[in-house]
User: Which sequence fits this backbone?
């Protein structure tokens, strides 16, 4: 009799499976009631009480789960409503895509404006990081190689120029783009290694970490500007990937072995950059390259006039390269004198 009742309960439960409903509750109640009456007749009161308590606890657990789900739904609805109120009150930053970036961690950027009150459109640099390039800098300075390392650095740079001339020829826009992907590497490598050395030896760097990282960032901004003017093709992007991978690792190893040689090579690379941008300006003056309006990012970064052109951009970039030339030759001279960079104050504050 007991096994028959149990099988009946299981059979009816399976037939009515597929979700908890009011019908299931009523059928379960009737089954419980009928099984209770049978067990009263055939079993002792203690066994009946045990089975009844088991079935009752199952029913109570279902009701408790349902009640918990209802409470969770109410809490979730309240949280959603609170987020909507915070967003309407300015608690998040909305983009054009409709995505809301929460300021929960307190890292949201405050509203930044230009001098004329318009909203600052760039996230990669702020108004206080802009500057006016020193276009009066001497462009014709050249470090005459005298020592073996200087001559080796000079010849190395001249050899590196040959494949560049063959590949780009007189396409100075693409040439400048490739040049900047390489020129941004030395400052980053030098700054990174000086940073690690400062941590290891518990020593200040004399400002050279900041100076070299500023140089790397400035060269990167040159690249961001050139990309606005020259759209690189797929094979040029592949070339950039290859050259950067080879040059970064080679320069990293070189800086570990001889910082003097590394800075001297960088100084000669900057001299070649000045030459390339001078040729670029000649092509613009001759009309072979159209003197298009300057990109908006260049106007804001170098504080150029609103009607600035491509020629104005190339002039300020060339001035930056001349400054980098002087900084790196100066750094190499410090090492040539048997001193450390931290022994001489870094030329910071230009950018």
Assistant:
């Amino acid at each position: 009799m007991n096994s028959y009742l149990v099988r009946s309960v299981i059979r009816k439960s399976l037939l009515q499976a597929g979700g908890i409903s009011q019908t299931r509750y009523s059928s379960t109640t009737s089954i419980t009631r009928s099984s209770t009456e049978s067990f009263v007749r055939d079993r002792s009161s203690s066994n009946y009480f045990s089975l009844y308590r088991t079935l009752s606890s199952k029913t109570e657990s279902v009701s408790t789960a349902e009640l918990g789900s209802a409470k969770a739904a109410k809490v979730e609805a309240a949280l959603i409503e609170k987020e909507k109120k915070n967003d309407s009150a300015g608690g998040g930053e909305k983009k054009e895509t409709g995505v809301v970036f929460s300021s929960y961690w307190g890292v949201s950027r405050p509203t930044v404006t230009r001098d004329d009150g318009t909203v600052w459109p760039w996230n990669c640099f702020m108004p206080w990081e802009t500057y006016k390039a020193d276009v009066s800098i001497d462009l014709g300075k050249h470090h005459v190689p005298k020592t073996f390392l200087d001559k080796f650095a000079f010849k190395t740079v001249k050899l590196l120029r040959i494949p560049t001339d063959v590949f780009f020829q007189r396409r100075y826009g693409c040439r400048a783009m490739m040049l900047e992907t390489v020129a941004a590497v030395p400052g980053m490598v030098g700054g990174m290694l000086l940073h690690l050395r400062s941590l290891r030896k518990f020593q200040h760097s004399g400002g050279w970490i900041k100076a070299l990282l500023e140089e790397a960032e400035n060269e990167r901004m040159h690249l961001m500007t050139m990309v606005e003017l020259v759209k690189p093709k797929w094979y040029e992007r592949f070339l950039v990937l290859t050259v950067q991978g080879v040059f970064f690792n080679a320069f990293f190893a070189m800086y570990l072995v001889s910082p003097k040689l590394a800075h001297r090579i960088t100084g000669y690379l900057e001299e070649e950059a000045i030459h390339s941008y001078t040729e670029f300006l000649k092509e613009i003056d001759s009309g072979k390259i159209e003197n298009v309006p300057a990109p908006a990012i260049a106007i804001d970064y170098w504080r150029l006039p609103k009607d600035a052109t491509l020629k104005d951009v190339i002039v300020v970039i060339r001035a930056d390269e001349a400054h980098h030339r002087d900084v790196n030759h100066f750094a190499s001279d410090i090492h040539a004198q048997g001193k450390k960079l931290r022994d001489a104050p870094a030329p910071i504050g230009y950018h």
